[in-house]
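note to self — DONT lose this again. spent like an hour looking for the file last time. sequence + predicted structure for the chain T wanted, 401 res
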Amino acid sequence: MNAFFASVEQAANPALRGKPIVVCGQGRTVVTTASYEARKLGVKTAMNLYEARRACPEVILVYGDTNKYVAASHQIHKILLEYTDLVEVFSIDECFVDVSRLCKKEGDAKRIALEIKTKIKEKLGLLCSVGIGPNKVVAKIACKMQKPDGLVEITEENISKVFENLDLDKLQGVGVGSKISQKLNSLGIKTAGDLGRAPLELLMHHFGIIGRYLKNVGLGEDNSPVKKYFEYEQAKSIGHSRTLDINTWDIAVIKAYIMMLSEKVGARLRASKMEGSTVNFFVRYGDFTHFSVQHNLKTPIKNSCDIYSQALKLFGNCLPLKKAVRMLGVSISGLCKESTQGHLFAEFGKKDKAERVFDGINKEYGPFTIKPGSVMIAEKFGIDEGCGMVAKSRRKFPQAE
């Protein structure tokens, strides 16, 4: 999809169409997506709002609505599923679709692509770019070659011709990031064609096991199949992070935010009927340096208070603070299905039941309608827009980041 979040907002609100807008969060945040009108004036993804306004003083800020984008994404999936169940969701705004079973003659893939583009535009008012290729890597690269509203086909026969002078930055979406590109450039490898011709031994020496993958990318080779839409792929981790509205040295505030994040992670774990055995803690300081640490547990956990206890211990590695804290993150990995075995001690069973009740109330009346008292310290320091302030308000709050 093209400038997906911004395009969804413009489709939903005619007053925004044709105008430079950026989708962002509230408080200290960055540009999540910029409309093409804003991009033409120098606004880029990941700019902070000060930089965005400096580049384009007339830019319009739109606070992101995750539910709106997920709903649009599902509508797009429905259109793709009219053709085949071989639809692999790559991200909220991108899918791989295997139409080989539908192609009886040359040109059928392009015809199907045009039909899909037309349906998405007519039903949702959104533009997309489509890349056609003999495999996922080539299709992905073709898709990036013409935006917005593009349609590019790279056939088996012309892969080498297209790749010969293709800059390495065009390969970022297929696992060749900026650091790898810099290293390849230092080795005299400037294009995809150079990468395909590079000796495998050289790539393996400098990049280890992924050297073989890099060479395959340079050759336009990829044997991975497109997965079926309804094949469930288990998440590898569940986490939340939060940029503080003001950098702080206050330990009580930091602990309150860690509690808030732990509550969010725990609620998502329980909603997914999952638990995890590795707790990860992340902190970014005011000078943008960061520190992360993790701890492996003998027994998986899912309760928010257990997550908080472990995250707090990991935070101890940062003490005494040498710099003000800007951002905090808590996540759980090593996920598995939650155990159905009962607790030996009744007290632990009561804790599980209580958290399930709290989850139900928060789902009904909004995140953090019921919460640990210490979370209010974080709310007073810098109100988390994903949190309700009092239960009696029954306000429906937007999804937390």
